[in-house]
Specification:
- The structure is a single chain.
- The chain contains two helices and five strands.
- Helix 1 packs antiparallel against helix 2.
- The radius of gyration is 10 Å and the shape is globular.
- A five-stranded antiparallel sheet has the order 1-2-3-4-5, with helices on one face.
- Helix content is 26%, strand content 36%.
- The protein has one domain.
- The protein is α+β, with helices and mostly antiparallel strands.
- Pfam families: KTSC.
Amino acid sequence: MHEVPVKSRIIQNVYFSQEDGRLRICFRNGQERLFEGVPVDDVSTMVTAPSPGQYYIDRIRTRYRRIAA
């Protein structure tokens, strides 16, 4: 997994693996979420969105399978 830079009020770090589409999101409150099958385009759009946290809530959390954390 590689770290993807993000500027967000609620997301601290984002890590993504293109090989298996795993996305790890580390929140500023200490929680983490790990998803699988996430396309690179959705990750790119999330980290460059005006509100990455809102994009996560609207488009990542509800679409992809959470596998850990």
